[in-house]
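ugh ok fine here u go
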Amino acid sequence: MKIKGTKSILKFTYIQGIKAKAFKISTALMGFILLILILCANFIPTLIGEVEGLFSQSNETSVKTIFLLDKSGVFKPSDLYELYDMGIGITVITEEKLPEIKDAVKQSGEAEILISINNNDGRYSVLTERPESEEKIKLSDCSIINGIVSASIERAHLLSIGVPAKNLDKAKPIISNSVIIAGEKPQSEVEIIFDYAVPIVTSLAFFMFIFMYGTMVANAVAGEKTSRVIELLLTSVDPLAIIIGKIFATLLISITQILILSAIGFITFIISAPFGILGQLTAQSTNIDVSYAANEMSAFLAGIDQFAGIKIIVVFVLGFLLFAFIAGLIGAGVSRAEDLQSALQPLSLLGVLGFYLSYFPFIFNFSGERKTFFITFAYYFPLSSPFSLPAGIISGHLSEVDFLVAALILFIVDLLLLLLIARVYERVIFYTGNKPGLKGILSIKK
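structure:
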């Protein structure tokens, strides 16, 4: 297997790649989109004024008048003493007046709302109707009122069934339940959230990057082959060195672009965070009990494997090579550049298949088991392992043995693909007939 000239091809392709207009434009465009997304996520909640309503423990509201229709039969308007203390006027109405009040509230330019309370054998419902215009009353104002009314109904209900007033807090326990294997540590709320979020984020991110940059190889190989540049290269460079050099050069180009985008995202977040949602949350931190969440997050991060970053990089490289080798072989088999998109359709199907095989076993794991047949299959199957392994590494559900076996399988498949390219590539380059299909490519190597 001759690879003379690989270093020269790699260096030349990498330098030309980062100098190309396509690289600069795509990096600038993706960087701009990333910057806008971070700024929007940071500033939009602040601009619409929802942060204070969501996170602050203050019950301040712009509501001045409440029309109350109570059909619960368990409490009196006087039970809403918190609303009276806030200076809100409460007007009790009858059901006959309901249509008239509804129309009046809808068209009202004042800070008034209509609340209807119903009771169906202990199943209470609170319906709040606000004016059509949001100038006077916001959704967060109604949420505050709903919370106070719901708490009042709960107190009144407990009192109505004989619970003493002094025992009301004891009658409302907070209960969480989980099922674990004997001897294991129960999952925290942060771990449960990460179990669902990490597979989605990592599989999607790896799918985008591995697949996007893998197809770049096919474009590069097909472009040179159809422009006859390849024939000049073959006079001084071994055929296999060309495709290996291009594949690894594309890998370096992808890593370069990822690092640039990461730097843009990090700098944007650091500069903008104090002036947006993070600044508001920090200012309100005296009213928010963040110690529990902070401790849970710290404990989760401390439990991540110290070699997780290295393992993820290994998986990324092996996964990239898998799709890049397939893409390079397809690019070599294309006789015309305009045929490349149709030729890449099987690769697209394989990529989508691998993505969903890695995605669904985690999301639809209703049993809660950390290692089912489908999850293990997603770890070991070469098409899905590049997308599923990072989630298992970060969450800590992937054992050392599973990682080594999955990485070894991926490495062996990459090696076999490389050997296939070594036997086929040169003959495909000099193939002068019609575009060979899959059977044609496989028959050339014989």
